[in-house]
Amino acid sequence: MGNTIEKWTAVEIPQPAEKATTGPAAVLSIFNQKGGVGKTTSTISIAAALAEYGRKVLVVDFDPQGSLTVGLTGNHEIFPTIYDVLLGQVQVTDALLKTRVPGVDLLPAGIDLSSAEIQLVNEVGREFTLNRCLAPLIPQYDYILIDCLPSLGLLAINALATSMGLLIPLQCEFYALKGIGLLEETLEKVQLRINPSISIKGILPTMVSRSLHHREVLERVIESFGDLVFHATIPDTIKMSDATMAAQPITVYASSSPAASAYRKVAAELIQRIEATA
Fold it and tell me: What's the predicted TM-score (pTM) here?
């Protein structure tokens, strides 16, 4: 065991070429029905790495916990938020925030977003509310990353209805493999009923240690999903938690760390996957 992993992670990803123009944005949901898999951290870090490669990025906090908002601003109380945009109380451009990361903007969220599902339930075309809200921003960005909450409610359906692709952070635990199967079933239903163009654009192994258990799971993931798996794995390191506390991406907080390098490799491969087929 191990040769599969070594060969997979050793694959070189070329540095992305410069992009001549901005937009239209590739809209991607970072989603896993299981919490605690590094979803928000990955959203922030991939966005920052994409910006380093000259891409203009919007991150959308679509989780009532607001972890993405706090992780980029250090602020729990921001107004207006994506909630106000969804309810038509403000224009989406009025809720946009510049972050401290050059090239990365934010649509923030707060706890009030948790009530949006109830308030939207009687709306016509409720599954496409986020799609309508983000439509004016598509020409202004290269990538729009939606940080989804870890449950399959109306908010998650809105995100999937809006996205052309899905990024799945995957913690290397055996039960996580079953979760991927359930997620594939969910995706098939979304493709059939709401958004036929959405597909999985990448599976990202996160919190990977050198333990035998993690290596066994990672090898099985690579063997099962092949090219869907990114060639970089995100190491389990305290620096990720430290970066979160500092409200900075790992690419800024610990720029030369293995985790920062891994996220840059993920961003480069994502650009290769998305822009080569555009």
Answer: 0.94
